[in-house]
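From: lab user (bench 3)
To: helpdesk
Subject: output format question, protein + coproporphyrinogen III

Hello, I'm new to running complex predictions and I'm not sure whether the block I got back is the full result or only part of it. Here's what I submitted:
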Amino acid sequence: MGKEPDTASEHDLKPAGKLLLRALSGETLTTPPVWLMRQAGRYLPEYRELRADAGSFLDLCYTPKLATEVTLQPIRRYGFDAAILFADILLIPDALGQDVRFVEGEGPVLEPVRSAADVAGLDLARLHDGLAPVYETVASLSRSLPEAVTLIGFAGAPWTVATYMVEGGTSRDHATVRRWALSDPEGFGRLIDLLVEATAEYLIAQVRAGAEVIQLFDTWAGALPETAFARWCVAPVRALVERFHEACPGIPIIGFPRGAGAGYARYVGDTGVDGVSLDPTVPLDWAAQVLQPVATVQGNLDPMLVVVGGEAMAAEVRRIRGALGGGPFIFNLGHGIVPQTPPEHVAELVRLVRAPAA
Ligand code: CP3
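Helpdesk reply: Thanks, we reran it on our side. This is the complete output you should expect:
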């Protein structure tokens, strides 16, 4: 397919298809596709309203009608190039039989898994029954999204999901899970292997239901020193990507090893991901030189700049576009949008990203 030069027609479907898929297939576009991590959520009044009536957060995730509606809210407001399925990375532990709750003002609380016996108590056979409502949401989104909008499915990467399963929630230092991984790599490896298997199955089912791109969130990749990073982040993601690509050839995966620092280079070199999501600390020139020749880069505006807005946000958007716009690139934040973000700043951000380059 030939490249379309700088006209507004890039936002048309023809001739080459959806912008996000074009960027992920390696094309350089004059206007990058844009979506934001956590684009559905508490910063939107319409989300807070629906959430108040939905019961628990897990009820919301498991009710296809409501999860579909919440996914569509930011698309209606801002016309993003992609919609991300509304769900959570902790649905897999829940579906495997671990007790998972979301406590208001505290976050997730899980009954910890800390031994080989605990791992043996998890049941892969229940996975698809538990997650069937999510597949239904994906199918309903696939029917209802505007034609130019790409549907992104997702899951947590094995290491990050394991941190929540072992720590029993969000952790500052991940001491328990790191200690287990170092002292009993074989036992901990069984949990990681189970998660590779479950996550591959989950993502393949999302694609069968209509997901067109997958993002893998490895939020706590930065907690691992070099040797452990290779073993518990890179190797499982590589195994997962291999299984996924075998079952779903041509469906791109974006990996997000948040906080991996210079480890980002090994991650894109060794995992086989098609795209890589950059956290806000990744230097842009380095990303353009080292990562972008290997994978489509996505990112990486500091979410706090969308809270602040104005010229501070505008200047950084220009800098990111300038540094990464010369190759395959998707505009996004470097981590999820935060609840205190003014919705009108998001509208301004989308306008800036789509403005003709200076
Ligand atoms: O991006 C999107 O709009 C899609 C939905 C989505 C959610 N969680 C909804 C959610 C996605 C992609 C996630 C991923 C997720 N969940 C990650 C990886 C990305 C990241 O942010 O690092 C992680 C670590 C989780 C686990 C999780 N879920 C935590 C730690 C919390 C509590 C913290 C918080 O922000 O409240 C959640 C809850 C959660 N997941 C909310 C939303 C909208 C807020 C809950 C609510 O509305 O009451």
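A quick orientation on your result: Strands lie at 82-84, 100-103, 107-110, 150-156, 213-218, 253-257, 275-277, 296-301, 329-333. Let us know if anything else is unclear.
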